[in-house]
Amino acid sequence: MSWLTSLPALLAAVAVVLLPGAALAWSLGFRRTSLLGLAPMLSLSIAGVGAVLAPFVRLEWGIGVVLVTAVLASAAAWALTRRPWQRQEATEVQRAVQQGDGWPTLAAGAIGVAVGALLIARRVIQLVGEPDNISQRYDNVFHLNAVRFVLDTGNASTLNLGSMAGGTGGLSSVYPAVWHSLAALVSQLTGASVPVSVNVINLVASAVVWPISVVFLTRVVIGPRPVGLMAAGVMSAGFLAFPYLLLVWGPLYPNLLSVSALPAGVAAVIFVCRLSPTLREPPLRAWLVLLVAVPGLALSHMSAVNALLAFSIPLVLARLFLYVREMIRTKAPARRFALVALASVAGAVAVVVAWQKLRPAPYNGWTPHQTVPGAIGEVIANGPMKTDATLLISVLALIGVARIIRRRTQLWLLGCYLVAGFLYVVDAGFAAGWARAFFTGTWYQDTYRLAAYLPIFAVVLAALGVLATADTVKSAAGVLALKVPRAGMRLSGVAGFAGILVVCLALGWATQTGPVRGYVASSQYFFERDTKDSIVSSDEYALLARLGSEVPEDAVIAVNPWNGGALAYAFADRKVLEFHMGQRETKSMRVVAESLAKADTSPAVCDAVRETKVSYALDFGTQYLLNHPESRTYPGLQNLASSGAVQLVDQQGNAKLFKVVACG
Question: What is the distance between the alpha carbons of residues 76 and 61, in angstroms, rounded to a whole number?
Answer without folding.
Answer: 22
